């Protein structure tokens, strides 16, 4: 049966969405935070190499390179290695593959 507008009165009503102009800044921030949270949950191991490196290594590496250029130490590789280990935003609590870990050579020599 058709209603006065010419539509079918038995059809379900479309959900009412709030107008964009009525969206509060708090709601926008909450939605953005939720979206970022979902993005971070993406398995980075399955990401393309460039995306994986840009998400995990590049930020701290660039900071380390800036500190390296500023300090200009006698042994830049050792300085950068120490910087990366000491500024790791997600310290690795499990052993590295192949038994390679910070100080791994010293531990192997002690055996």
Automatic annotation (TrEMBL):
Could you state one GO cellular component term attached to this entry?
A: Set1C/COMPASS complex
Source domain of life? Eukaryota
Compartments, record wording: Nucleus
Task: Identify the Gene3D superfamilies for this entry.
Answer: cAMP-dependent protein kinase regulatory subunit, dimerization-anchoring domain
Q: Which UniProt keywords apply?
A: Chromatin regulator, Nucleus, Transcription, Transcription regulation
Pfam families in the record: Dpy-30 (PF05186)
Keyword Transcription among UniProt keywords: yes
Q: Which InterPro entries match?
A: Dpy-30_motif, DPY30_SDC1_DD, Sdc1/DPY30
Q: Does the keyword Transmembrane helix apply?
A: no
Main location as per UniProt: nucleus
Segments for region (Disordered) = 91-111
One GO biological process term: chromatin organization
The family database entries (PANTHER family) matched by this protein are listed as:
DPY30 DOMAIN CONTAINING 2, DPY30-RELATED
**Which family is it part of?**
Belongs to the dpy-30 family.
Q: What is this protein called?
A: Protein dpy-30 homolog
What does the organism's lineage look like at the top? Eukaryota, Viridiplantae, Chlorophyta, core chlorophytes, Chlorophyceae
């Amino acid at each position: 049966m058709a209603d006065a507008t010419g539509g079918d009165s038995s059809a379900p009503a479309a959900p009412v969405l709030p107008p964009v102009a009525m969206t509060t800044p708090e709601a926008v921030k909450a939605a953005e935070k939720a979206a970022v949270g979902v993005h971070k949950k993406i398995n980075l191991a399955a990401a393309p190499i460039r995306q994986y490196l840009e998400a995990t290594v590049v930020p701290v590496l660039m900071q380390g390179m800036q500190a390296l250029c500023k300090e200009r130490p006698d042994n830049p590789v050792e300085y950068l290695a120490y910087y990366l280990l000491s500024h790791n935003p997600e310290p690795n609590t499990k052993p590295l593959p192949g038994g390679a870990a910070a100080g791994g050579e010293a531990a192997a020599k002690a055996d």
